[in-house]
Design brief:
The chain is α/β, with parallel strands linked by helices and 656 residues long. 39% of the residues lie in helices and 18% in strands. The strands form three sheets. It has a nine-stranded mixed beta sheet. The chain has an eight-stranded parallel β-barrel with strand order 14-15-16-17-18-19-20-21, surrounded by six helices. The longest helix is centred in the last third of the chain and has 22 residues. The radius of gyration is 28 Å and the shape is elongated.
Length: 656
């Protein structure tokens, strides 16, 4: 079969023009939308899903659409940007709101939808604002059928198609037929996927000649062709266009038609899919298109590209949501490795790769000030006769110090904090949304066996946490603890693991062997052995937090992590209130690239906090003392990194 002629040497692989909206997915499975009580917010809209999906697969994608100048519009733009999608061509509408869709999963065959798209922003896409220069930089342009349905969006689509045609851009149509968006059903019936209509068929047929590739389900080909039979519809379509026609056939895979229409669809090039248990069909077609384009734009032949497309669709039907369910390259590598579980929703490694291999903020180096302590602050207040009600204000002062150090020390992108939600609630709110690494504890201070602070239902508690907050769990653990104690602790850690996998929060596991269980020089060995055990029981936290160790122990931990979870973010060094000079000296042992930095607290702020609580110093003096200690710690860390010694001196002196 002939391949499509994608132009080379252009900086955008695929531009997607069409719907860009917020999906509100019911979190209750098995009920109607009327009965759903909570919803998860995702990026949505067929074109947006394809832009997102192709970006996740490593293509240089772009979005051409329109959003309201409001919170939902900004959410969509931020989501696309984080995935690596160009949003320079998304228009901002001051007069209209961003579209929304409510979606549910009733059963394997019933997926209620409610489109809230009356006069929404993406249906007001301005044809005059379509940028010819931008389209000339693209290799392909994908348009979805809704943006052929009204005069306004048709004009924008036709302008984009005309420009693309002049510049040799491969033009792709995903038919994406939604009868409700063509005015063929009641406004509340977004679920109906097919209603035949001669006017819609004639309207679509008038546009088909502008495309080189057209993708649709069997029902979508019926509306495009206007016939009651698939093959008759394909014949009618062929009279309108020479495009390659791709027929999506669900679990049967897909069939690809070039040139003349065969007598039966199975006589076309047919690439079979794999049968998987369906949770949610919504978004599977967008995943299919993303996979197909990913293959074709990388030079794969039709069969190879279709295999990728079928796999992407199969992965997404096993998950909740559309855009966030899209697979990443590492997931596809696992899918094709021969080691995947026959039921994708039960494949622990596939789920793990979906969490850790997608684009996420990077932290190559971390300078984290920890003041998530609760009992220690209360003890300090008691020691100087102060009221514990002063502690929240003290924690806010520490947050101010961190903000100062971020700007003065040139540490932007490396700063972090650990803050609790009880005594530090106000400080936690101050720190959220700043772009810092942000951790929050869940353990009851001093508990052994592990207990949670303020809740027995960790999963329900995490439902109220912003996603950017990393779950920090400290466990006092020695691999030679009594079997009953280890079993109880392991069970609690499994609760933490499952709760964070469900909530989507990253997990930092802090491992401290109790002093009374340690032999001389045993601490580092005990930590490595404990972490090996945690991997053995299936825990793969994004972060490890451990005490200072000898270089050989850091290297042993590095080898263990590489073997068990190469996607681990890394390890950081805790302080245990050791003298600052002693901590800085220990940094020199942590030369392993696994070690990203430190998360240290009392060494930096304990003395100043006692003085402040005792009214011996004012706010300014407190900030100065804590800031100086934090800078010394950062400088000490950087001095331990050979390439950073000159910069470390400058930081300690306050030059940068």
């Amino acid at each position: 079969m002939r391949s499509l002629s994608f132009p080379a040497d252009r900086d955008i692989d695929v531009a997607c023009l069409g719907r860009l909206a917020v999906d509100l997915y019911a979190q209750q499975i098995g009920c109607s939308l009327e009965s759903a009580s909570t919803f998860a917010k995702y990026l949505g809209g067929s074109s947006a899903n394809i832009a997102f999906g192709t970006a996740r697969l490593g293509l240089r994608s772009a979005m051409i659409s329109r959003v309201g100048n409001e919170q939902n519009g900004r959410f969509l733009l931020d989501t696309l940007i984080r995935e690596g999608c160009d949003v320079s061509q998304v228009q901002i509408d001051d007069a209209r709101l961003t579209g929304m869709v409510l979606l549910g999963i009733k059963d394997q065959d019933t997926f209620p939808l409610l489109f809230a798209r009356e006069n929404c922003a993406d249906m007001a896409l301005d044809a005059e604002a379509i940028d010819a220069g931008f389209l000339a930089r693209c290799r392909s342009l994908v348009i979805t059928g809704t943006h052929l349905s009204t005069p306004g969006v048709l004009a924008a689509s036709r302008r984009a198609l005309d420009i693309a045609g002049r510049h040799g851009v491969v033009r792709v149509l995903d038919i994406d037929y939604r009868p409700v968006l063509w005015g063929l059903t009641g406004k509340g019936d977004g679920e109906t996927r097919y209603i035949g209509n001669a006017d819609v068929s004639r309207h679509l047929q008038a546009q088909l000649g502008a495309f080189e590739l057209i993708i649709g389900t069997e029902e979508e080909w019926l509306i495009a062709g206007g016939e009651a039979d698939l093959m008759a519809s394909l014949h009618r379509v062929r009279a309108c266009t020479d495009a390659t026609l791709v027929v999506k056939r669900g679990p049967l895979g897909c069939s690809i038609v070039q040139g003349g229409i065969p007598a039966a669809i199975d006589d076309a090039l047919t690439v079979h899919g794999e049968r998987v248990e369906v949770l949610n069909v919504l978004g599977a077609g967008d995943a299919f298109a993303s996979g197909l384009l990913s293959g074709l734009l990388r030079g794969k032949d039709w069969s190879e590209a279709a295999v990728i497309a079928n796999a992407c669709g199969a992965v997404v039907v096993s998950r909740h949501g559309c855009a966030p369910a899209m697979p990443a390259p590492a997931e596809l590598a696992h899918w094709f490795s021969g080691q995947r579980h026959p039921h994708p929703d039960q494949d622990a490694q596939l789920a793990h790769l979906h969490r850790v291999s997608i684009k996420r903020p990077q932290w190559p180096e971390l300078y984290v000030l920890a003041y998530d302590h609760r009992a220690q602050f209360e003890d300090m207040a008691r020691a100087v006769g102060a009221d514990a009600s002063a502690v929240p204000a003290l924690k806010r002062l520490i947050t101010e110090v961190v903000a100062e150090v971020e700007t003065e020390a040139g540490c932007r992108g490396k700063i972090g904090v650990l803050i609790d939600g009880r005594l530090g609630e106000s400080a936690l709110h101050d720190a959220t949304g700043r772009g810092w690494w942000l951790g929050r504890p869940i353990e009851l201070p001093g508990s052994r066996p592990l207990r949670f602070d303020g809740t027995r239902s960790l999963a329900s508690d995490l439902a109220h946490w912003p996603r950017e907050q990393v779950v920090k769990c400290l466990v006092f653990y020695h691999p030679d603890d009594p079997a009953a104690l280890r079993a109880e602790q392991d069970e609690q850690l499994q609760v933490v693991w499952e709760a964070t996998r469900h909530s989507g929060h990253e997990l930092l596991l802090e491992v401290i062997p109790p002093k009374d269980s340690l032999a001389p020089d045993d601490e580092g060995e005990a930590v490595v052995r404990a972490i090996r055990h945690f991997y053995d029981i299936g825990l793969k936290p994004e972060w490890w937090k451990v005490g200072a160790m000898a270089n050989r122990q850091w290297r042993a931990l590095e080898a263990l992590v590489k073997e068990r979870d190469p996607w681990c973010r890394g390890a950081v060094i805790l302080g245990l209130n050791q003298p600052l000079e002693q901590l800085v000296e220990s940094f020199a042992q942590a030369t392993s690239p696994l070690v990203k930095g430190f998360m240290i607290g009392r060494t930096v702020w304990a003395d100043a906090s006692l003085a402040w609580l005792g009214k011996e110093i004012d706010d300014a003096a407190f900030r100065a003392q804590v800031g100086a200690n934090f800078r010394r710690l950062i400088a000490g860390w950087r001095a331990s990194r050979p390439a950073s010694q000159a910069e470390a001196v400058a930081i300690e002196q306050g030059v940068i």
